[in-house]
Amino acid sequence: MISRRKLIAGIPAAGAVLLTACKDALPPTYGSLFDASNTLTFASHRLLLRNQPLVREFARDRITKNFPAINETNPKSDRYQNLLAGGFAEWRLPIAGLVSQPTELSLATLKSFPSRTQVTQHNCEQGWSAIAEWTGVPLGYLLQEVGMLPQARYVVFHTVDGWWDSLDMFDALHPQTLIAYGMNGGELPVAHGAPVRLRVERQLGYKSLKFLSRIDVTDRLDDVEDGRGAVGAAYGYSWYAGI
Amino acid sequence: MRHALLIRITHWINFLSFLALAVSGVAILIAHPRFYWGETGYFDTTAAFELPLRVNLDQTGWGRDLHFLAAWITVLNGLIYVAWGLLSRHFRFAEYNSLQRLAYVSVIFGLLPVTMLTGLTLSPAVTAAYPMLFAMFGGRQSARTIHFLAADLLVLFLVVHVTMTIRAGIVTSMMGMPVRQR
């Protein structure tokens, strides 16, 4: 129940969020009427999530059998197939951009970092949903390890199949945002993005990119690729998918 | 006798935004026209029911965008309507017969809040802040199913409402939209 006092206290907070949104935290979704409403959704969600709550986590017995594998399920490129044949021993994840120590992480190094395991529900934009357990390194930890610079505002992800997307720091630093290498207690299967995929639990499934190949930290998105923050934007998928 | 201008404007905006919600709702729905009960539901799960629609995965982008734009307009417009209606004592249910009253009350206090709350339950961000929404509707997929069924009843209400209005001949002109005579 929201008391009047809480409501009144919330007004400056709402104003701060909206002002910030207007000033320099605008997501790369503006310019059309649709984008105006997505920005309104984005700003309202930031207000609702200002204390960074976690999404629900389930007991392991709730894990879905045959979790759907959609979109790319086995990239055909020679480079990927060679890495796969070698058990991803030669695979590296470069983290570069606005960091003091640009790094290329091997899978073994990634697995040596403190990990988080969470059983969460994947919410596909199509309407289906399924529960899986994910194990990986919180992205916030990795960003700290590579010395993210103070001016950093976005994290851009690229995949081996040419997909790309981005998060702002609010979601990138959330404890459940993982660079995941494990699923349901085993290695991340190829169909689900081996060796490493992203998990962004407070947005629709399409933000959780599979087959990560590179991470860039940046202060702006307008000079990245087509400047729209995500490859999906060109297909009408909004950058912010908290819906 | 026509309703006040503000009531007519908000009612027409509501009509258009509701149509946009219905059309965009179908665009989203045809990506996965299967409905489930409980928390999860996907291709291998037994569906509670399935609609005989051809699956089309390419309409959800604009579908979602239009759905949320129209949802915002519906909510903001609705707030203006309710605020004005209360201030000006527009809501005089005594003038309607009991069947009309039952219909209006169940739409305003039943279907509309249920549709809004089940819609919000589909948001992974909103439910991170308010996980009690899942308990309220028995899981994410139940909420999606209830959202669909309640929206169907709203469409049914709209059809009856418009039909009766036209048959009663009380639309002085379509753009006049005052649905009542003295």
Structural account:
The complex is a heterodimer of chains A (243) and B (182). Helices cover 25% and strands 23% of the residues of chain A. By secondary structure, chain A is an alpha+beta fold. Chain A has 2 domains: 1-51, no CATH class; 55-235, Sulfite Oxidase, Chain A, domain 2, CATH 3.90.420. Chain A has a 5-stranded mixed beta sheet. In chain A, helix 1 packs across helix 2 (33-48). The longest helix of chain A has 20 residues, at 4-23. Chain A starts with a helix and ends in a 25-residue tail after the last strand. With 182 residues, chain B is mainly alpha-helical. Chain B has one domain: Up-down Bundle (Fumarate Reductase Cytochrome B subunit), CATH 1.20.950.20. Chain B has a two-stranded antiparallel sheet with strand order 1-2. The A-B interface holds A 33-34, 36-38, 40-41, 45, 48-49, 53-56, 62, 64-68, 121, 123-131, 201-204, 232, 235-238, 242-243 and B 28-29, 31-32, 34, 39-44, 57, 60-62, 64-66, 68-69, 72, 122-131, 134, 140-141, 144.
Features:
A: 243 residues, alpha+beta, Sulfite Oxidase, Chain A, domain 2, 5-stranded antiparallel sheet, 6 helices, 25% helix, B: 182 residues, mainly alpha, Fumarate Reductase Cytochrome B subunit, two-stranded antiparallel sheet, 2% strand
Secondary-structure map with pairings?
The complex is a heterodimer of chains A (243) and B (182).
Chain A: H1 4-23, H2 33-48, H3 78-85, E1 92-97, E2 103-106, H4 107-112, E3 116-123, E4 129-138, H5 139-145, E5 154-159, E6 164-168, H6 169-172, E7 178-183, E8 186-187, E9 197-199, E10 212-218
Parallel strand pairs in A: 1-10
Antiparallel strand pairs in A: 1-2, 3-4, 4-7, 5-6, 5-10, 7-8, 7-9
Helix pairs in contact in A: 1-2
Chain B: H1 5-29, E1 34-35, E2 49-50, H2 60-87, H3 98-121, H4 124-129, H5 132-137, H6 140-167
Antiparallel strand pairs in B: 1-2
Helix pairs in contact in B: 1-2, 3-6
In short:
The complex is a heterodimer of chains A (243) and B (182). Chain A has helices at 4-23, 33-48, 78-85, 107-112, 139-145, 169-172; strands spanning 92-97, 103-106, 116-123, 129-138, 154-159, 164-168, 178-183, 186-187, 197-199, 212-218.
